[in-house]
Design a protein that fits this description.
This protein has 109 residues and is α+β, with helices and mostly antiparallel strands. 21% of the residues lie in helices and 25% in strands. It has three helices and eight strands, in the order E-E-E-E-H-E-E-E-H-E-H.
C-alpha cells in the first residue's frame, strides 16, 4: 500500500499514513484534533509520488571509504555525508551520478 503525506491546517504538523489508493484524498485527523489534508508538495519533496519512491536515500559501500579518511573525503566531496563505518549517504540518483564522477567511476547498464 502507498504512503501519503498529510498537513494539518490547524497546527501545521505533517505526517504520513499508509492507505489504499481509494482513500488517498480522504481528510485525516491530526494528533491535535485538527483536520489534515493530503499534501502533494510534501510527497514530492520527499520523493514519494503516489506511493512510488523516486528518491531512495541509502548508505553506499561502493562509494564509502575507510573511517580514518572521513575528513579527507569530506574535503574532496563537499556536502557529502559519511557514517561512522565510512559509508557515503546517497540521497538520490542525481547525487549518485555526481559522486561517481568525482570518484572516476562509471555505471554499467
Amino acid at each position: 500500500m502507498p504512503t501519503y503525506c498529510y498537513l494539518c491546517s490547524d497546527c501545521g504538523e505533517n505526517f504520513e499514513i499508509v492507505a489504499p489508493m481509494s482513500e488517498s484524498s480522504k481528510p485525516r485527523k491530526c494528533a491535535c484534533g485538527g483536520e489534515a489534508v493530503r499534501s502533494l508538495q510534501l510527497e514530492h519533496a520527499q520523493g514519494n509520488v503516489d506511493g512510488l519512491m523516486v528518491d531512495n536515500p541509502r548508505w553506499s559501500w561502493s562509494l564509502g571509504i575507510n573511517p580514518k579518511q572521513i575528513k579527507e573525503a569530506m574535503a574532496k566531496h563537499p556536502g557529502a555525508v559519511f557514517n561512522e563505518k565510512g559509508q557515503m549517504l546517497i540521497r538520490n540518483r542525481q547525487e549518485k551520478k555526481q559522486r561517481m564522477r568525482e570518484a572516476n567511476m562509471i555505471e554499467f547498464n
